[in-house]
Amino acid sequence: MLRSLRHALGWAAVGVLATLVGMAAGHLVASLLIPSSSPVLAVGSMVIDATPTPVKNWAIDHFGSNDKTVLISSVMVVVLLLSTSAGLLARRRFRNGAVVIVVLVAVAAYAALTRPTAGVEDLVPTVVTLITGLAALAVLTALAHGRSLLPARGKDAVHPNVARGLEPAEGATTEPATGASRRGVDRKSTRLNSSHRCISYAVFCL
Question: How confident is the model over 101-160, as pLDDT tens digits?
Fold first, then answer.
């Protein structure tokens, strides 16, 4: 049970790391273009605007001028908790985990476009977040499954039947036959056929 729990926590960390990488890339691009278009800040501002006035007043009374920082941090915690499902779902099928990333980024895109001064260029950080997050999830998922990110070459190449989950044919090798080896086999077969005909003729004469 403890082992399965550690395994689940590892896959949850995959989703969190992929989301953090995507958010960091989007925030960096936004800082170079339009800071307010950052997916993190856009979602945080949308949540602050939708927060009831009594809750805002409570935050101001308890946190003073840091009320917005606390609210945005709370949003970040919720997003990261949701992102754990991306890793857990990607464990069995990458597509399912990718859907979680897409949904989270779609919320950020909506928040960025609903700002009063929003334009099409405000979507650039969100697109960067989506591409980077999905790429990070794909890489981390492959590493978690123990798959190599580089194609196998030479003797490490996998036989086509093995790649499809089948056993190689009996006597077959996992290395592709070269032209020289094929020609050698053809010459050997020709000599055997010729010898067989000579032996048959000698037996017939006897």
Answer: 999 999 888 888 888 787 788 889 999 999 999 999 999 998 888 876 555 555 555 555
List, for residues 150-193, the tens digit of each pLDDT value: 555 555 555 555 444 555 555 555 555 455 555 554 554 555 45
- Contacts of range 81-86, beta carbons closer than 8 Å, 24 or more positions apart: 83/15, 83/16, 83/18, 83/19, 84/12, 84/13, 84/15, 84/16, 85/15, 86/14, 86/15, 86/18, 86/19, 86/137
Instruction: State both tokens at 168.
Output: 């190689």
Integer Cα distance of 65 and 95 in angstroms: 42
Helices 2-32 and 67-90, axial angle in degrees (round to 10): 130
The structure's pTM equals: 0.64
Whether the Cβ atoms of residue 5 and residue 108 lie closer than 8 Å to each other: no
Residue 6: both structure tokens together: 């550690």
Which residues are CB-contacts of 85 (< 8 A; sequence separation ≥ 6)? Answer: 15, 97, 100
